[in-house]
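Standup notes
- DV: blocked on the single-chain target, sequence here:
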Amino acid sequence: MKEFVLKDAPAGARKIDYAGELNPEQLAVVEGGDGPCLVLAGAGSGKTRTVTYRVAYLLEGGVRPDEILLLTFTNKAAKEMLDRVEGLLGAGATGIWGGTFHSVANRLLRQYAPLVSRTPSFTILDEEDARDLIKLCVKEADVDTTARRFPSPAVLKGIASYARNATIPVRDALTIKHPHFSDLAPVVERIAELYEARKAASDAVDFDDLLVLLLKLLRERPDVRDRLADRFRYVLVDEYQDTNALQAHIVRELSLVHRNLLVVGDDAQSIYSFRAADIRNILAFPELFPGATTFRLLTNYRSTPDILALANGVIAHNRDQFKKELRAVRPHEEKPSLVPAGTDAEEARYIAEQALQLRDEGTPLCEIAVLFRASFHSQSLEFELMKRDIPYEYRGGMKFFERAHVKDLVAHLRLIANPKDEAAWMRVLSLQGGIGLVTAGKIVDGLRGAEGLEAVLARCPVSGKAARGWEAARDVLRKAAAAGGPSGMIREVAGSGYRDYLEAEYPDFRDRLDDLEQFALFADGYESLTSFLDEVSLTDQYGAARGGSGEAQDEEKMVLTTIHQAKGLEWDAVFVMGLADGKFPNPRALEEQDGLEEERRLLYVAITRARRRLFLTYPIASMTDAFSIGAPSPLVTELPQGLAEEVRLRHAPRTAPPSRSRWGTDEEPMIVLDALGEKKTDVPYRGLLRNVDDL
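- DV (later): unblocked, structure below
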């Protein structure tokens, strides 16, 4: 007789020593996670480990893999958890439904497509496909996009997407995201309707449809909902604080029958409201699921006690939260540093110097990160790092001088300096309505031979709609040329029709305008347009050369990133820069409901990225006026005393001849807040590259 050996352990026989491998907080979740459960997982508390062991515990208890649904926000996170389960059990995780909301919705809709007016072979449109379809809808709606600036397909798609994820009308989403276009609400609503009709006619869906149609299926077909609830007896959701209204409704429908729903998240790390994430989903969980059990994971394995004390102090001011305080496992090290600097440039100098000192003390550059509230806050630091030849990696976006809107402004300035610059003409003309690539080429040809800016602008080489575009470009250049120095020129262009162009073309137009204001502030130190363009051009080329070399790709690099991009990551040393009033909190965020509380959560997230060393920095000089004193962020001034060591900067004795460079000469008075005290060891400054020739 043949013998067949079953490799899977029978129900009730557990091979994992849960009590020995988990702390008491984690063990309580793993063993007591039946019914509706809310797991408040503080930063660095072993959330992934806890979810992994919970899944393993269910499998060892006899639950079939295909009865478990694990919803995450990235497929990478789901794969990591399932791989860990495989590692714990040796086998048994195959068959678990794990993935993002969208990937799981796609699998389910393929099975039930006819019930939502699609076929099982429906097409999923990517962002470019969706924009192309919206272009057709704009044309079908007979919109004259040349009569005035009209939202681009990307902006229209963003409005529709926000409306669907927040489950609000398109009109309301338009008012929230782009109030400048509120008068176009009827037209935008019509285009949204045409877009939905065209997708249905094409047997296609976009990413938002995957969730919208799944919720429609669950609500309109209770039989299907009950069938799925019977299939998925245990539903686990990661990062629940980041769910939007649409996702929360789906989770609720899938767990109404069995109520075995375990959601894991941290209300203190809810920072994505601009994507329609709703913190109320996690805050209201106990009310939405009566009888729910709440667990707290508060033992932090990442940061020192001093860093956690500061994080706890920041978030304690929020009213709408689950009160909790993280506890450290690591030993004490140095207190976090609070560092006021005279100006943005001086703040950048300090960060560069301190990073080099950390490297000399044994912290690799790749374990040093600089976090900021908004992308435009990095500009002065990027300049400083390039001047010092310190390699860095910009996470989640393009480096400052590579951004399209910065290049657009530079193109305008190049034309003022050199009206024969054909490449700059092509870029500037492409921004104007009625001028395509061919027409722009004709205009450039018609300008040849003219000497001087005014002679060039006096010509009119085209007619019709293109003439209006040419006249608009000409007027902007004339006004900018008369604005004085580079800073005034930048502000003149940014305040012209280019602002309308940005709002019509880009969903993130406000961030781009902030970039341009920062660019203008940077230009304040230059009187000569030529020297300013030299500085910008050489810096841009220098960064491109470093990024393009094989050696640069392999070397250690500091990390520069927005706080939003840094969530979920950690480093040995973290700088949080730009903690000045008017920068952080973001002024626009303060206009929104509960905006200040989300700004505190952002700072909390930034602080809890640090393992061993933390530096909070801010410039004292006003963001808008280098000759007036600004204030630190209110998030800094409300911190309890004694949680951070206050550092006063001083200049090292001069070892080089005086320089006329704007980059921090000793003639410029150093602003010091005497009330902040002085650290025993002041921060010395080593030699500084003085001008672009040193590159």
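- Follow-up: The chain is about 45% helix and 10% strand.
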